[in-house]
């Protein structure tokens, strides 16, 4: 697994990295804004065949395609085009020796994702995937506390990712667009891989792709996992809950808040309540966190990998692992059967 740029492709720390952004739509426009302010990045080119509908180019020309972007002499690229175009664009960037961050999911299929991971690994380039939730302050702090043993033994991870339908999405369903975030972050927080899962999907809005999914599964380390994802909820819910022997950590990633609900130390003396609750309520603590924009943190991780001084980016191998789980979710839903993974 490539963690950072090997010597032949590494740019010395502090030396500017010439960056290009391919796709300046709903996600790409934020990458453009952050690339302009990320220390060490020199934004030298942007490209989008659809033009600049959000007006982010400023005085920079909008190039027509990835080939024109490569011709600007970029060292690194951020690919934020629709998923179906990821493979073609990223393979050209790998062939040109360009470090690349591809927005999630890595590719439209496991086979395409494997080709991308292989190409960047073989070329000795940093290949990253834009799972920005790993850079959310609440999730970063949650993972740190779980790893430090605050919860003791971890029993279960539950995620909810619900909202109205986003007009920006047309090429994939809710599983590849939204559930892929939770697949990646839950495995990252659990420090494990999926062992098995069962999923059900629904098509309630008359569109080609699924707009609801429920997933129930288990990680290889025994932690239970559940994902509830849809595009049909009239409010935005982004919640991750990790429950363990000492209590529960609850992350609200919309607000970047993390709260710890500690198991109580005082026994419940009302027998009926004690039987119902199982554990008593203890102290609730909301942590004060430094809240930086996650895309800014993500770009810094990408930069540090290119400089050879960090390995906190999500690798293409990580992205491929998430893609395998995403396809297993769709397979389980279509077959109505449990999918088991070889670990």
- Taking all Cα atoms into account, the compactness measure Rg is 21 Å
What's the tally of helices? Answer: 9
Order of strands across the biggest sheet? 14-13-12-11-7-10-9-8-15
- Please describe the biggest sheet, giving its number of strands, its sense, and whether it closes into a barrel: 9 strands, mixed
Average pLDDT works out at: 93
Cα shape: globular
The assigned structural class equals alpha/beta
Helix content bin: 25-40%
Segments where pLDDT lies below 50 for 5+ residues? none
Quaternary structure annotation:
single chain
Q: State the end-to-end CA separation.
A: 16 Å
Number of strands: 15
Strand content: 25-35%
What sequence of helices (H) and strands (E) makes up the elements? EHEEHEHEHEHEHEEEEEEHEHHE
């Amino acid at each position: 697994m490539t963690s950072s740029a090997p010597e032949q492709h590494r740019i010395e720390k502090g030396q500017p990295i010439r960056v290009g952004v391919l796709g300046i739509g709903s996600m790409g426009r934020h990458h453009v804004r952050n690339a302009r302010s990320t220390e060490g990045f020199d934004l030298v080119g942007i490209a989008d065949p659809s033009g600049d509908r959000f007006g982010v180019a400023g005085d920079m020309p909008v190039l027509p395609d990835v080939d024109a972007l490569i011709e600007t002499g970029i060292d690194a690229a951020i690919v934020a085009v629709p998923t179906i175009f990821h493979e073609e664009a990223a393979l050209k960037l790998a062939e040109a020796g360009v470090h690349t961050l591809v927005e999630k999911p890595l590719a439209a299929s496991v086979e395409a994702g494997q080709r991308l991971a292989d190409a960047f690994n073989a070329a000795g380039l940093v290949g990253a995937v834009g799972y920005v939730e790993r850079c959310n302050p609440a999730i970063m702090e949650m993972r740190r506390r779980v790893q430090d043993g605050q919860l003791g033994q971890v029993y279960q991870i539950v995620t909810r990712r619900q909202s109205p339908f986003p007009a920006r999405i047309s090429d994939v369903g809710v599983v590849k667009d939204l559930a892929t975030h939770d697949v990646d972050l839950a495995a990252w927080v659990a420090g494990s891989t999926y062992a098995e899962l069962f999923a059900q999907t629904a098509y309630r809005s008359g569109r080609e792709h699924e707009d609801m999914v429920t997933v129930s599964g288990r990680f290889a380390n025994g932690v239970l996992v559940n994902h509830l994802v849809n595009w049909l909820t009239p409010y935005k819910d982004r919640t991750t809950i990790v429950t363990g022997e000492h209590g529960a950590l609850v992350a609200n990633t919309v607000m970047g808040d993390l709260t710890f609900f500690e198991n109580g130390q005082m026994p419940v003396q009302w027998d009926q309540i004690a039987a119902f609750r199982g554990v008593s309520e203890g102290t609730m603590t909301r942590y004060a966190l430094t809240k930086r924009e996650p895309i800014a943190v993500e770009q810094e991780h990408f930069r540090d990998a290119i400089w050879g001084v960090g390995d906190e980016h999500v690798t293409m191998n990580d992205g491929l692992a998430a893609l395998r789980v995403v396809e297993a979710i769709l397979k389980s839903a279509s077959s109505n059967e449990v999918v088991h993974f070889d670990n």
